[in-house]
Write a structure and sequence with these properties.
Blueprint lengths: L7 E2 L3 H6 L4 H18 L3 E4 L3 E4 L2 E4 L5 E4 L2 E5 L4 E4 L7 H5 L6 E2 L3 E4 L7 H18 L4
Amino acid sequence: MYKLKTKENDNSVIEFINQVSNEKRRQDAFKLLDIFTETTGYKAKMWGSSIIGFGSYHYKYESGHEGDAAYVGFSPRKAKISLYFAVGDTNRQKILNRLGKYTTGKACVYINKLEDINIEVLKELILESINFLKLKYPED
């Protein structure tokens, strides 16, 4: 049976960010911490060893696979900063079109630095993701 690796834990978010070796990436991570905390109203928590997540929801797929995940999050990785938003939201791409300079993977949005993106659009993406997930996976 599949075991979810990325789980919420009590590791220190501040200690994690302080270990980011790239000074600019570390500064951006602290700014993102403020932006995500203020926008979501949730306390930052570590998810796994390298993702800073905000809030959480329980999901269950038709396949029967289920688990918990953060509504939104980010990770100051070596190459780029990864931003985590809901997948499957049809409004996501419309908002991303106004974000600025970024690339995407399946679930992640990658940025080089905060100056490359519009912070107000980032806040809109954060709220859209949370609202989408709350509708898709309502609390019982």
